[in-house]
Amino acid sequence: MDKKQIFSLWYVVLVVIVLVSLQEFIGVSHTQNLSYSEFKQALAAGQIDDVVLKEGVATGRLKADGLEAILPVAVVESLKKQGGEHRFVTVLLNDPGLIAQLDASKVRYAGVLESKWLGLLISWVAPTLIFVGIWFFVMKRMGGGMQGGMLEIGKSKARVFMQQETGVTFKDVAGIDEAKEELMEVVEFLQHPERYKRLGGKIPKGVLIVGAPGTGKTLLAKAVAGEAGVPFLSLSGSEFVEMFVGVGAARVRDLFEQAAAKAPCIVFIDELDALGKARGISALGGGNDEREQTLNQLLVQMDGFDTNRGVIIMAATNRPEILDPALLRAGRFDRHVTIDKPDLKGRRQILDVHAKNVTLAPEVDLNSVAARTPGFAGADLANLVNEATLRAAKRGKNAVDMQDFEEALDRIVAGLEKKNRVMNPMERRFVAFHEAGHALVAEFREHADKVSKISIIPRGIAALGYTQQLPTEDRYLLRKSELLDRLDVLLAGRVAEQLVFDDVSTGAENDLQRATDMARHMVTHYGMSETLGLATYDTQRTPLYLDGPALPEQRNCSERTAEVIDTEVRRLLDESRARVSATLTARRATLDVLAGVLLENEVVDRRMLDELLRAAAPGPATDASAPTVAA
Ligand code: ADP
Ligand code: ZN
Questions:
Q1: Residue 239 burial (CB count, 10 A)
Q2: Domains of the chain with CATH codes
Q3: Section 396-413 average pLDDT
Q4: Whose C-alpha lies nearest to ligand 1, atom 9?
């Protein structure tokens, strides 16, 4: 017997019990209770029509007329309400003379055999069923751990959340146009799979959405399903991993079975990192068996899945770096969509979406709200509008005004500050000048890559802002002049801080590390130091195990040479710093303007940068090579 049969049996029992008691209830409700003395009086007065004698009770009918003479008014009243039937019931006492009396009064009487089946059912069958039910429940709980048939039971427990229609479209997702555009292709495929199949087009199997919490990853996946008009199946990665080995794997199988049945559809796995953590070489103690089995099952299922069936698997994570590389390989989650925290314009658009159904006072300026919420993710903004609306409602206002927004803002900013998710104004200024420094030096160095975007929106914990440079062609060789220019760009952030604030921050750590590595490489590998000449010096670090801790540097050179290497590295960095300092001092006005624009807009793209530079002094043309992002 499987679970379904058990269930229908329970239903049958329940229905029978309800029906029987209903019948009893209806019978009773149409029957007047008489005390035994009243019954005897009615009998003596010849008012009894007929009687049925059961074990301990008598039921029957009274004659309609003349009842008032023998019975209390209330009893008669309620008998009358029955509408002509005048049924009664009375509890029999030990009265041996009753039959004789009935005979004397010529009353029709009879006995019945009481049916015992209901009692039997309740006293026998129900406990048995309850016992069987408990047994199955216990087995189900233990289920997954056992092999074979018991897996079936584990399977039916998967809490796949399905929405036939998400009701969310791209209109509800604001401020992340690039991500939307990338997913448009998926929508088109789901809408017209034949078109792609005919052309033999390859559609991605898995799309990984990467972004900080609350940036709208789930929302975006739902919107894709909504736009395409397909069902949305979702499950959280953490739900796969349960206590019993094998349950997670069964759930993965089940999920894919359900998806195949619902195709075309979208399967969304939230918190992919909970299940897709790299299968580490946790040499000691075996690691997490259950998670690895589940992950393996997911990989197997994804490989075995034919995209042409119209199932697209989407997953979300905010920690892509810890994912198992196997998950990101071709044919799995090979398409990545990154969602950044929204910039000023994006925040304004998100506020618009959420304020659409809110009555705002005329003086409310959402632009200024957007300007005051740097670092807020979409969810924070949704929360802000909601909080402001609640406040207005509590005060009985007809519209949400600026004061409500102020108060909501104070509260949410305090909350976010606690979670370390917003920068204070001083930090923002530091980051703005730091990034502006990188960008300007990149612009004014002949061999540096063109800047494509500067942003001071924090990306994660490490990068508080970034300057993106895009190469225009692939490079295989780098000249010394190019390396020196790159060094300059890397140091420019720190130098700008020093120049503007006469103080420096920790924000340059990654820059300095990369600059030092580069300088060291130039000296020890590329023969680019006059003092050391053309010899190369191997300072390779060899880790103990594949991912174990690195050993201290192993030198194949003398102490003296090592000292010279260090001096040369320092010299390269010091000279670079001097060059950058000169450039930035000469362009100080432009630096100030660029940082100002950054503070205001948070993001400066190529077009804005061109305009800005044209307004200032024109710089020399730039060159291109491998991609660089200076943080
Ligand atoms: P995530 O999955 O990235 O943690 P969600 O998709 O669950 O974030 O977002 C939570 C809520 O925040 C959404 O339901 C929506 O109301 C709001 N939100 C987030 N990003 C956006 C956006 N870009 N546009 C509109 N609303 C958004
Ligand atoms: Zn930097």
A1: 18
A2: 31-114 (3.30.720.210), 159-339 (3.40.50.300), 344-412 (1.10.8.60), 425-630 (1.20.58.760)
A3: 88
A4: 216
